[in-house]
User: What shape does this take?
Amino acid sequence: MTDSIIQTIDITKVYGMGDAQVNALDGVSLQIDENEFVAIMGPSGSGKSTMMNILGCLDRPTNGRYILAGEDISDLNKTELAIIRNKRIGFVFQSYNLLARTSALENVMLPLLYSRNGHIGESEQKEKALQVLDAVGLADRVYHQPQELSGGQAQRVAIARALINDPVIILADEPTGNLDTKSGEEIMQLLQKLHSRGSTIVMVTHEDEIAVYAQRVIRFLDGRIETDVLNGEGSNTEHLNHEKLLQIEGGAS
Amino acid sequence: MRPSKVTQIAWKGLVRNKLRSLLTMLGVIIGVSAVIIMISISAGTEAAIEEQITGLGSNLIFVQANFSRGGFGSGGGGQGQSGGLVYDDAFAIAEEVNGVAGVVVEQNSSETVKAGNVTIDDVSILGSTSDFPSVRDMEIDNGRYFNQAEIDRNQKLTVLGSSLAEELFGDDVPVGQVVTVGNTKLTVIGVFEEKGLVGEVDYDMRLYMPITVVFQKFTPSQFARIMGDRVRMIYVEVAEDAESLDDVILQTELLLAKRHDVSLEEPDFVVTTQQDIIQTQEATTEAFRNLLAWVAAVSLLVGGIGIMNIMMVSVTERTREIGIRQSVGASPSDVRWQFLTEALLLSLIGGLIGVGVGIGGSWLFGELGGMRTLVVPTSILLAFSSAAAVGIFFGFYPANKAAQLDPIEALRHE
Assistant: This one.
């Protein structure tokens, strides 16, 4: 299926050796299609963070294949993975991970600095960064530094940074974990808005209230997928197909 | 990533920690400026000495008393005995050695000089013989120098250096006037042309008179008065038609050995040439310079270790930043270049400041320290390029460490 953004085939991740060996992931196969909004849940130690790191190309699986946007990236080296992260993936972290003492604008422009596919001019870069900052509602905070921003605003900057290189997927790791309820809701609404405009989002969370914003919830347990259901449906371990997704989206809007 | 971008990021990294960057650079600044200052002092000293030696006149050989042999007292004090040079040795050399153009004996003193209502204290007095102007390359501007007959008769005559003449007589014509040196009145018979500074000696502020008058009136102590016409050094100018310099030296040595009744193996005098002195001096300054080079190398090494130390701290402290950069697509080489460039910038800026401090310091030593300094361009180049090399060398390990960080670990770092 050409619309599949993420496809993993029997991924395992083993830490340690011998008796101390731990199978963080134990044969995970999953498929995420374009414009899906997926929540990954599970208790700590279930493998959800490891899965996230592999999906984000920060880590490599021990075995199995990972195909991102049609490209098998299981065997890429560190530099090649860095290039994939740069042009294919947008990260949103729990603790924002913005560069300190650096303006929102420069933080958003950071991924452009490491772009390899033809450099665009400085003014064009700035133009683009201003656009995404505007899209996340921070047009008036462009020159503020992270320490001058509220948690919600900082997370918006992080989302703007994730968007700047038009990634095929946004990976959000507990995006509301450091935020109060109201800011958390605003961030989730923003992610939903991005989703409705066509972004594909995979989000790790342990909060059910946050998971409800997603269309599909995958639960991990002991390195395996325990359940994989569409929100609002009962237990459904079958993978969603694209038609279903469109139906749900149509119904929701 | 483009080099200009890398430099920009590295620069921002340094500016964010101004004080720390400055302290890190301090080692390099001190190292580089030390190299430049020390080399400028040694080059200045060398130049001064060489100028002094060549400024004495051309084609000279120097005959010095060799006191280290214990000449004093051993011979019973009489002339012709072993015990250093005497005034008459100069005449003997002039008369008996072939290929000698002139012989000069000098005796120094200093006295208060008065002319009319002008009094100048502590004027340097040089007693000499008639060949002095030609042997020492001094030109008479006005009047004449004293001749041998006048010297032999202890005549109270004097020739003035140009500056001294001007200070004593202003616009008046000095020749024919009388100056009082100490308690002795002397008639001015000539004024030298301007000669300028030779080494540390201002020949234009000197007062010249027959050496016999100095022996008679101005020998500084009672002891020296008894020693009378012993002299410290005899200058021998070798004639153009002399067989060879070595021949003149040999003749002089044989003559003096005979006169002093000593063997050539154990003479009570030393004969040297300008070339000898310059060579000895060069050997000394070269040893000095080698020592300085080591000091400089060590200080640059310490500076480099300082850079490495701070870069290690910086990498650890900025692990999170490195993780963030990696997550948005910085490759290991991007990260390596960033930190390597920071180290290089630190050492280059430190090197640049060091060059400034070095040049300023050399100037200051020259102005205030009374030292002759000469900034050598190659020393600047040497110091600056070693600083750069130090930056690359000592920056590489920390930069590599940063590049090898695992992005997941780095992002987790607090």
In short: The CA atoms of residues 128 and 193 of chain B lie 17 Å apart. Residues 67-106+232-267 of chain B form one domain. Confidence is low (pLDDT under 50) at residues 69-82 of chain B.
